[in-house]
UniProtKB/TrEMBL annotation:
PROSITE patterns: GNAT (PS51186)
N-acetyltransferase domain span: 5-166
Species whose genome carries this gene: Chryseobacterium panacisoli
Keyword field: Plasmid, Transferase
UniProt-listed InterPro entries: Acyl_CoA_acyltransferase, GNAT_dom
Pfam family, any one: Acetyltransf_1
GO molecular function, one term: acyltransferase activity, transferring groups other than amino-acyl groups
Name of the featured protein: GNAT family N-acetyltransferase
Amino acid sequence: MNPEIKLRQSQIEDRDRIWEIIQQSIERRRQDGSTQWQNGYPNLGTVESDIAKGFGHVLTVDGEIAVYGALILNDEPAYSTIEGAWLSDGEFVVVHRVAVDEKFAGQGMVKKFFDHIEEFTKSHGIQSIKVDTNHDNMAMLKILEGRGYSYCGEVLLRDGMRKAFEKIII
């Protein structure tokens, strides 16, 4: 039987579970030798802010949270300056803070999360999705490449330079 997989906006009741998943991802990044997320960000306050602003989204599998990420419409100040060039200058969805529960790691759930984000973007008539990741986050780099995201250059975020990607949806 196929599991029921859904994307939904996260609620305050999801906060502690989301924070557990992010902590797992912080530890995985550390074990992989990545510098991403090793300086106190993201933290519980970040999760609470995402939920309060309506940015937080979860991918559920039979009602259980498998993946968390923040979806932000047209608003990432760091993206206004890029060493390189974006593919477009229309409306876009920014994807930040993607984290997968270790129980679901390696099962393609982040790919499914991006599938749902692409459907969300298309259904709202939004032109593209923009995302950045650390140069040493091999798992995310592989996912973005496999999903057809184009490398556009480098952007400066609070914790350093990041590789920036975009995918035109409509």
